[in-house]
Amino acid sequence: MALSIATWNINSVRLRMPLVEHFLKVWAPDVLCLQETKVHNGEFPFSPLRALGYEHIAIHGQKGYHGVATISRLPLHELTDRRDYCGVGDARHLSVLFDKNGKTIRLHNFYVPAGGDEPDRTINPKFGHKLDFVEEMKLLHAEADAGISSILVGDLNIAPLEHDVWSQKQLLKIVSHTPIETEGLTTIMRDGAWVDLMRQHTPSPEKLYTWWSYRAKDWEAADRGRRLDHIWSSADLSSHLTNVEILREARGWERPSDHVPVIASFDL
DNA sequence: ATGGTCGCACCGCGA
């Protein structure tokens, strides 16, 4: 049986609901994890999603900033014992359980802090916040609960590998690709036994990007992208991976997000 | 060579 999971930093779910609807109609993943929904829970646009058959929706939002949502055709059990990462009350993480073909899967949806411009925590508290958040993520383990498989997706705001950025040389001192960040992400994966599904499917040195800055004159011609969005899983699921698609074309849609959807497909 | 663009909420902040 097929299972598909998508992740997409939407940069305002209300503004871009037409793009979300188009994506769900054409690509029809079983589950879509959104980040940067930028909407308070009371104003979340449930009805257009339910109308497309996505009746199971878990949200964790706040006014104006951040916010995550997990939108599903399969029934979800929302886990309400959520950790408040860094104790600052930001809506940056949501965890749900669902069942598929006899397996129980825990799905984490993350929006890691961007970290500001200066990669030095002594002068930039936002960078310190990002590092602290990554440190706390080291507590996550793909095999934390016996009998439960794990998937972790989201905008992690770190491009860990040389070929996850357009120029390693030019980005080593740029927040998202500094060694302290990339080593942090590598440690979370190693200690937590997570498999990087995008790189399992498309190994280095092929370039993989999921984000292109709004500030480029011509994002497509310059192609100065970064792989900031990720899909990881426990080993029992990675062996059933059939495809990973990065929807590059979505960056060229009308009034796009600066991130594009990534979709992982499994045969369970 | 060091700006450049977004979205939201309010005329700055975070990305």
What do you see in this structure?
The active site is at residues 111, 155, 259. With 268 residues, this protein is of the alpha+beta class. The protein has one domain: Deoxyribonuclease I, Chain A (4-Layer Sandwich), CATH 3.60.10.10. It is built from eight helices and 14 strands. It has helices spanning 17-27, 47-51, 125-137, 168-171, 179-191, 197-201, 219-222, 235-238; strands at residues 2-9, 31-35, 56-60, 68-72, 77-78, 93-100, 103-111, 148-155, 195-196, 211-212, 225-226, 229-233, 241-246, 262-267. The protein has a six-stranded mixed beta sheet. Helix 3 (125-137) runs parallel beside helix 5 (179-191). The longest helix is centred in the middle third of the chain and has 13 residues, at 125-137. It is globular. The relative contact order is 0.17. The model has no long low-confidence stretch (mean pLDDT 97). The chain binds one DNA strand of 15 nucleotides through loops.
